[in-house]
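REQUEST ID: PR-0412
SUBMITTED BY: lab tech R.K.
PRIORITY: routine
TASK: structure prediction, single protein chain
INPUT:
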Amino acid sequence: MWFRQHVDVSKDVYSYGEVVKLIEEYIGRLDDELGELLSQQGLPHQKGRRHANKEDEIRSAMLRERHLLEGPGFEAPDLTEPKAVKAFMSWQGEEHLLPTLKLRKYRGKITSDDAVLATVDNSSTIASDNHLLV
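STATUS: complete
OUTPUT:
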């Protein structure tokens, strides 16, 4: 449901790089919670890592998701085809309709200057502005 709540309803289709950026936002969805847990550790009356399990779970999830995106591929709704976007936008979270949604594996990485380097299935590398980088 996170993706459904964070897509731009005015868009008919996303570029591959835009979907990679959306996935990066998804991976960062727990940054605030992690930051709050870390700031609580610095309080004088708190000793040790009070929320160590939760902190470890968040870090582990973020690392796993980033590994998928930068490695074998992060599976997410296919937002690069208008027909698939339309079907996804009409979906209201019904579990029984999940198998009807088209998914795709995305590979990519956000560089330090927020440029998206995305690897398409045919092993070419593209930037978010769709210029071929090979």
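NOTES: Helices lie at 2-6, 16-27, 31-41, 52-70, 82-90.
REVIEWED BY: pending
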